[in-house]
Design a protein that fits this description.
This protein is mainly alpha-helical and 541 residues long. 67% of the residues lie in helices and 4% in strands. Belongs to the lactate permease family.
């Protein structure tokens, strides 16, 4: 019964969103959250104060993705108003008018680099509107960017899902874990980007440009794989940066690109000639954005520690909770309703105020076209995320309640999420490694984060590895890969990319189409595992 009640809300949510004329996420998610609340109250037996505290904490937790989405919309609208998007369109046409090249440069290599610097769903939120502005259909672009933003995710945000996601586990060889994770992702990269392209352009178009597609893939993945053998922080960031530069160079040279005129949506569009100075000015906001992301995420620089400082500035009792503000301007509610449940928002570290808002406020002085429009850009961007907040609030209520640990006095000892994980793992035995990645994907689907998926299920995966006598790093690598591929179906990311491309009522449509590539990714992970067990059983088995 515990398992049935744990999975039923998920199945209901998928049905509500994916059925014909499905409900939008801002209706389906709150309904699901309310159902789980009732299950927690009447079956799991958690106290009303504990459940209420989780709901209150969700108001704070929702600020993270919503402010990122708001900031991404703000940045994209500034780029349009300032005329930068128009110049970038013309420049990309001179780099290559080929739609496959444009999709790979922006949807793959550029997003790969952004994931390495930031994570938090920002790659799709930045890349998707840029591709839409080039004339690609919005809904197809949403699907493409979600599918492509999977390979770099395990090392996103300067490796956070790996070095922090598994930080609570003991006796983990992180060097070996990073190596195995990158190997599995690298093999998947030979298939997944091609699948993503097929949602936007026809196979005949992809086939004619397949050499360039694989050049762009390898430009990112080869340095990514090599760096992962010695470091778990920089594979995606450095691999994406190298891949981006080399992909642009290859496109300019026409390497691997069809000489035929494309019949895609972007062909036949007239673009004005632009100078190098215009291009540099148009790309300046992106350069500032990426620069700020890098300097605030790299552990070797002092800014990351400063922006995450827990040194208390002051604490005020609100009666129902303690409001705390730190020197890094992190604010939050602590010990809500006396339950010990807390949540906080890192104003400076969450990629919203820095880098997006700061970049817009700084760059407005360099673009004549934007003067007098900044206030309106802020206003319209804010109004765009109202329904997004409702949807994501429902998602966080669902997630927090499903991860809620039962009271010690209860007969039930596991959270709903752990019940699902335990049933899946115990039913598979030694065959677990063939499906281990899907548990990671389930975690990402719930939480919207590869990092949280690893934090949630890492200990379960490690325990399973010990029970069945398998390599712990292999099982954890599959978990991390699963959390990354789960980004395709992660509700937070789907809502984010749908919001910035004005497709907010199409989440169910997107989810149905990203699900199969996610399943294929898991199959590839299982095959790679089996092959390497045969080749190197002493390391992988």
């Amino acid at each position: 019964m515990q398992f049935i009640l744990s999975v039923f809300p998920i199945l209901l949510l998928i049905y509500l969103m994916a059925k014909k004329n499905g409900l939008p996420s801002y209706i389906a998610l709150p309904i699901t959250g309310a159902l789980i609340l009732l299950i927690q109250l009447f079956y799991w037996g958690n106290s009303g104060s504990k459940i209420s505290a989780s709901v209150i904490a969700s108001f704070i937790a929702t600020l993270v993705p919503v402010t990122i989405i708001f900031a991404a919309i703000l940045f994209n609208r500034f780029m349009e108003v300032s005329g930068s998007i128009r110049v970038i369109k013309s420049w990309l046409a001179t780099v290559s008018p080929n739609p496959v090249a444009q999709l790979m440069i922006i949807g793959w290599a550029f997003a790969f680099m952004i994931e390495g610097a930031s994570g938090f769903g920002t790659p799709a939120a930045i890349a998707a509107p840029l591709l839409v502005s080039l004339g690609f259909p919005a809904i197809r672009v949403c699907i493409l960017t979600l599918i492509m933003n999977s390979v770099p995710v395990s090392f996103g945000a300067v490796g956070t899902p790996t070095w922090y996601g598994f930080s609570q586990l003991s006796a983990v060889n992180f060097s070996e874990l990073a190596s195995k994770t990158a190997i599995i992702h690298s093999f998947a990269s030979l298939v997944i980007p091609v699948i993503a392209l097929l949602f936007v352009v026809k196979w005949s178009e992809v086939k004619k440009n397949l050499v360039f597609v694989y050049l762009s893939i390898l430009f990112c993945v080869v340095p990514y794989l090599l760096i992962a053998q010695v470091n778990d922080e920089f594979p995606s960031l450095v691999g994406g940066a190298i891949g981006m530069l080399l992909s642009v160079w290859a496109a300019q040279k026409g390497l691997g690109l069809s000489k035929d005129k494309s019949s895609s949506e972007t062909s036949g569009t007239d673009y004005e000639a632009v100078t190098g100075k215009q291009v540099a000015k148009a790309l300046m906001p992106f350069a500032i954005l990426i620069g700020l992301l890098i300097v605030t995420r790299v552990q070797q620089l002092p800014f990351k520690a400063m922006m995450n400082s827990t040194a208390e500035l002051f604490t005020v009792s609100l009666g129902f909770a303690d409001f705390k503000l730190t020197q890094s301007l992190t604010f939050g509610l602590h010990n809500i309703l006396g339950t010990g449940i807390s949540d906080s928002y890192k104003l400076l570290y969450v990629p919203s105020l820095i880098p997006f808002v700061v970049t817009v406020l700084f760059c407005q002085f360099f673009y004549q076209e934007s003067k007098g429009h900044i206030a309106n850009i802020f206003k319209t961007s804010l109004s765009s995320v109202k329904l997004t907040y409702i949807a994501l609030f429902g998602a966080f209520v669902m997630v927090k309640l499903m991860m809620l640990t039962p009271d010690p006095s209860n007969d039930i000892t596991l959270s709903m999420v752990n019940v699902i994980g335990q049933v899946f793992s115990s039913s598979m035995g030694e065959s677990w490694l063939y499906v281990a990645s899907y548990l990671g994907a389930v975690g990402a689907f719930f939480s919207g984060s590869n990092t949280v998926s690893n934090l949630t299920f890492g200990s379960i995966q490690q325990s399973i590895a010990q029970q069945i006598g398998s390599s712990q790093t292999t099982v954890l690598a599959l978990q991390s890969v699963g959390g990354a591929m789960g980004n395709m179906v992660c509700l937070n990311n789907i809502i984010a990319v749908a919001s910035v491309t004005n497709c907010l009522s199409q989440e169910g449509y997107i989810l149905k189409r990203t699900f199969i590539p996610m399943v294929i990714y898991g199959v590839i992970a299982a095959v790679v595992y089996q092959v390497f067990v045969i080749i190197s059983p002493g390391v992988w088995a």
